[in-house]
Amino acid sequence: MDESRLGTIETRFAELLWRSVPIPSGELVALCRKELDWKKSTTYTMLRRLCQRGLFQNENSVVTALVSREEFYARQSERFVDDTFDGSLPAFLTAFTSRKGLKEDEVRELEKLIEKYRG
């Protein structure tokens, strides 16, 4: 299943999970009731979806992340660049900066990244 694409509600739920894991599933139900105004069945349905996508697991009534937030968004970004710019990071950066430009501190940060991966 394609775990890199989540709907708006799934993303909101995943963000809540990443902030909270590890969390007992009973506490998750209470948290979702408070934060999202969800019923127990809604929470477990959404949890099952994200577990099937390989992002989280619910083992022994404790929910943990199989994929970190950072890893998820890295994969999502890679897929976007692959699908939209034929995998070309320079093409993506050109498109991204063509209207907005870069601030001096952003240029320095990118230069540091380039140096880090050059060596």
Give a written overview of the molecule:
There is one protein chain. The protein is mainly α. The chain has 2 domains: 8-68, Winged helix-like DNA-binding domain superfamily/Winged helix DNA-binding domain (Arc Repressor Mutant, subunit A, Orthogonal Bundle); 70-118. Helix content is 66%, strand content 8%. It has 6 helices and 3 strands. Strands 1-3-2 form a 3-stranded antiparallel β-sheet. A hairpin with a 2-residue loop joins β2 (56-59) and β3 (62-65). The longest helix has 17 residues, at 69-85. It is elongated and about 45 Å long. The model has no long low-confidence stretch (mean pLDDT 94).
Q: Summarize the amount of helix as a percent range.
A: 55-70%
Give the CATH class of the largest domain.
Answer: Mainly Alpha
Rg over C-alpha atoms, rounded to the nearest angstrom: 18 Å
What would CATH call the homologous superfamily of the largest domain? Winged helix-like DNA-binding domain superfamily/Winged helix DNA-binding domain
Distance between the termini: 36 Å
Query: How many structural domains in the coordinates?
Result: 2
Across the major sheet, the strand order is 1-3-2
* CATH fold assignment of the largest domain: Arc Repressor Mutant, subunit A
Helix/strand/pairing category: mainly alpha
The biggest beta sheet reads:
3 strands, antiparallel
pLDDT < 50 runs, ≥5 residues = none
Report the count of strand segments: 3
Q: What is the chain-wise order of helices and strands?
A: HEHHEEHHH
Number of helices: 6
Average pLDDT figure: 94
Give the CATH architecture of the largest domain.
Answer: Orthogonal Bundle
Per DSSP, what share of the residues sits in E-state strands of 2 or more residues?
A: 5-15%
Tell me, briefly, the overall form.
elongated
